[in-house]
Amino acid sequence: MLDHLAFETPKPTRIAGAKEDWELVIGMEVHAQVASNAKLFSGASTAFGAEPNSNVAFVDAAMPGMLPVINEFCVEQAVRTGLGLKARINLFSAFDRKNYFYPDLPQGYQISQLYHPIVGEGEVIVDMGPGVARRVRIERIHLEQDAGKSVHDMDPNMSFVDLNRTGVALMEIVSRPDIRGPEEAAAYVVKMRQILRYLGTCDGNMQNGNLRADVNVSVCRPGDYERYQETQDFAHLGTRCEIKNMNSMRFIQAAIDYEARRQIAILEDGGEVVQETRLYDPDKNETRSMRSKEEAHDYRYFPCPDLLPLEIEQDWVDAIEASLPELPDAKKARFVTVFGLSEYDAGVLTADVEAAHYFEKVAEVGDGKLAANWVINELFGRLKKDDRDITTCPISPEHMGEIIALIKSGDISGKIAKDVFEIAYTSGRAPAEIVETEGMKQVTDTGAIEAAVDAVIADNPAQVEKARANPKLTGWFVGQVMRATGGKANPKAVNEIVAAKLGL
Amino acid sequence: MGDLNKLTIAEARDALARGETTAVELTEACLGAIEGAGKLNAFVHHTPEIARDQARAADARLKAGDAPAMCGIPLGIKDLFCTKGVASQAGSRILEGFKPEYESTVSQNLLDAGAVMLGKLNMDEFAMGSSNETSVYGDVVNPWKIDERDLTPGGSSGGSASAVAADLCLAATGTDTGGSIRQPAAFTGITGMKPTYGRCSRWGIVAFASSLDQAGPMTKTVRDAAIMLAAMAGHDPKDSTSADIPVPDFEAALTGDIRGKVIGIPREYRMDGMPDEIEALWAEGRRMLEDAGARIIDISLPHTKYALPAYYVIAPAEASSNLARYDGVRYGHRAKLAAGDGITEMYEKTRAEGFGPEVQRRVMIGTYVLSAGFYDAYYNRARKVRALIKRDFDEVFDQGVDAILTPATPSAAFGLGEMAEADPVRMYLNDVFTVTVNLAGLPGISVPAGLDAKGLPLGLQLIGRPWEEADMLNTAYALEAAAGFVSKPAKWW
Questions:
Q1: Where are the transmembrane segments (chain A) (predicted)?
Q2: Which residues pair with B262 in a beta bridge?
Q3: Do the beta carbons of residue B119 and residue B128 sit within 8 Å?
Q4: Å from B205 to nearest chain A CA?
């Protein structure tokens, strides 16, 4: 089976400055909350939306003498993610402390993996349209603790801290600077989210902050990036700025676009871009300096003495690899090659793992193309109208498959099928039962159709004359017969019989 | 029985087993002794109600014939151990008012073994100090005296040492990061043992330097150290650095037979300016072990001279990070803020008020050695030195050495306040014979071996192979028997 479909590389985004053309170079750090019931180093729950400070173990609150103990499941999830990104798994990794003071960081340090991350180099293929994709290299993935939440707007004189999130496991997924435009950046996050959701290692919920990205943006002149690629020497690239904490695809694009133009304006003015951390303000659509390199924290990283190095077995990694689900690229390729779908349709159906599973169940009836048309056009359209998604879909894939089967067997026409779908969708009733009970079965009995045709011909002698002169008018007779049979007559049979009876 | 507080653990255990006394009587004797020993300033949080309840429970267990190893033995607990519902301040103002909702694994193990907690013992603030003069509770006074001056009991487990030496309790818990059990034990004429790193759980012990900290017993005899260590030790899934290996019966190993054992005498421990009587005591220890049938060989631990500087980089580095949590946000002391003060002022004022000068010094040293541009020159280099020191020990153990004999301290107890104006490094030199053991993660024990010319106790240190505390304790037992140290401080308090 194909790993992924063949693709060509897209052209980098080019921005025309006042004086010359510029290209963008973007690297991303995606922070993905590990899907796990317990935190990285404590048994406290990770449930979202709990009362403030209710999911807090002693170690999360950094009580004196409390010690972290690694949650094996979080390690497994990181390994699974690494394997899903075709990355090297490091059998030896270690935890370091990143020291800084903030009230929502009770320990005064975040336990992270600076020197020896658990996952090394991998890659993501970022789809930019049928046959076009960007290969983005992953540099590393490390496990780290999330911080808590500071609340500054509840009281004019006080700030509050909620430690529910403190110590929740995050994967920081760091890319190489291989992303070449705002759309690619958004598509990268879309693809990353898709893969993580397929793997079940992160729920991808961006609204809750379970998936967020820091975006590193720089600009260079055409040709410089190729020189960087040849040499891997960053000196060919421009100075980068990091835009922190982005949690919407739209904002990512807008922020990069703004930031690139800001940097271009500085450079064309003869100035220099200052390496710094910036924040994006969606209300004003601009990025603002958060802290410069000089003001940057000195995190004083050092190996966390409370934790032994993390040593895992190759056999364990192999077992996780064997349990990996089919991933989006492979699934899409299979949908194209096995079901004969277009790459576009296959892309739509595999975008969401739940939808892909749904479609595969529907397609079990044997006609993948027909199933794809119905799922994409009828079902997705109907869900969108109701503002639902596939997880709250009221019609089961089995019932959806039943509708396809009824069409294929000729029991119902495509037109009737839409009515059956609507009833099944709103009532939950089984399509076969609906067709039976509501008398929607197509009439294929030629005797009954002949009788109906005879009646229409007998009642409309004038029309018969006209039709004989102009065969295009037979359609009128077909329509009359369909009306008379309540639309249940097999249209193909009606056409043939009308033509025969009219002697055409 | 009179003077029950003067019993050893083993004596008390046997007396209890024979029904000659009760845990309540033992406890009352200790509570009485504590009451009369305010001048020593050893006990800083008294828990007589808890002690009496536990003693009654112990007596019930004894009566029921279900008496574990430490049943009914009254102990003092160093303030560094978190004890549920009882103030646990690590000798610091910054933990003012802090009463944990949890019990440290080591103290819980002792309670499970039937021990009775009399109260919390004074210590140097956050275990940083060698004289017990950095405590928020004030200095601890050594029960040993040679003139009118008050002497230091050593540190950081100075309260524990003073309390055991003055018979305020039968034994006490200590912790040892660079010598904090062994040095005060030597200064007060008691036995102090630091087990192999990972033998005792660190869970619930306020952290100073996590890769060096280890709890251990401070007792009147080597046998008591063996009994108490067995009760304290054991694998704890809550501490990732605690070792998942069985705890042997240390007491059963005390045969006193050390014939054929190889004892190494490291030449690098002969320091310039070391008092003659320390040198003489060391030679005496060597002779005693030889007389007991051990083979004595001269060995070399070539990187010893780098141990103290490496220790004073690594320990403060870890401490600067471990102590970051004391920020006034969640517990302990928080400074009063002025109008307009923000979070930065809250941190600065809280930590300036909450930490004493020695803790501040070490936090600053630690922050400095970890900072960008200095990390390799200090912290990383110190880690490499540490690896070399460990290799020195590995090599001599590979040569067949069973234990290493050294002096425990470069001097006897000095006067309180004597070092007040001195360079802090002079105080740090107290740890010169002990820090190597922590850096290498080895077990070490200080055994009282004699008196100096003025009549103050001196200790010898034995360093054992990793995880072979039983063997080391047996050598210490033989040394103790040969030294026959029975002196007690004359009661003046």
A1: none
A2: B295
A3: no
A4: 5
Q: Which pTM value belongs to this model?
A: 0.92
Percent of chain B with pLDDT strictly greater than 90: 96
Nearest Cα residue to A220 out of A236, A207, A205: A236
Give B105 to chain A, closest Cα distance, Å. Answer: 10
User: What CATH number matches the domain at B4-255, 3.40.50.970, 3.40.50.300, 3.90.1300.10, 3.40.50.2020?
Assistant: 3.90.1300.10
Tell me which chain A residues have a C-beta less than 8 angstroms from the C-beta of B325. 62, 64, 106-108
Active site annotation includes B145: no
- In chain B, residues with a C-beta closer than 8 Å to the C-beta of A65 are 81-82, 100, 104, 202-207
* Site of tokens 């940057």: A296
Q: For residue A480, what are the contacts with CB-CB under 8 A and spacing of at least 6?
A: A456, A460
| Greater model confidence, A449 or B332 | B332
Residue A463: the pLDDT is 84
Is B84 considered catalytic here? no
Task: Establish how many alpha carbons lie within 13 A of residue A495's alpha carbon, considering only the half-sphere containing its beta carbon.
Answer: 5
A184: its two tokens: 């690619």
Chain B residues 260-319 with CB within 8 Å of chain A: 317-318
- How far apart are the C-alpha atoms of A39 and A171, rounded to whole Å? 12
Q: Do A65 and B204 touch (CB under 8 A)?
A: yes
Best A58, A67, A69 member to test B by mutation, with max B CBs in 10 Å, is: A67
Q: Establish, for the pair of chains A and B, how many residue pairs have beta carbons separated by less than 8 Å.
A: 98
User: Of the given ranges (A260-274, A435-449, B106-120), which has the lowest mean pLDDT?
Assistant: A435-449
Q: How close is the nearest chain B Cα to the Cα of A423, in Å?
A: 58
How do residues A279-331 score in pLDDT, each as one tens digit?
999 999 999 998 777 777 899 999 999 999 999 999 999 999 999 999 999 99
| Domain assignments of chain B as residue spans, ordered by start | 4-255
Please return the burial class of A74, using the count of CB atoms within 10 Å of its CB with bins 0-12, 13-18 and 19+: buried
Q: How far apart are CA A449 and CA B462, in angstroms?
A: 109
Q: Which residues, at least 6 apart from B102, have a Cβ–Cβ distance to it below 8 Å?
A: A58, A63, B82, B84, B204
Q: Which residue type, as a one-letter code, is found at position A358?
A: Y
Domains of chain A: 6-210 (no CATH), 326-437 (no CATH), 446-501 (1.10.10)
d(CA B487, CA A487): 114
Higher per-residue confidence, B227 vs A1: B227
Taking the CA atoms of A367, A369, A375 and A381 in sequence, report the sign of the dihedral they define: negative
Q: How many residues can be counted in chain B? A: 493
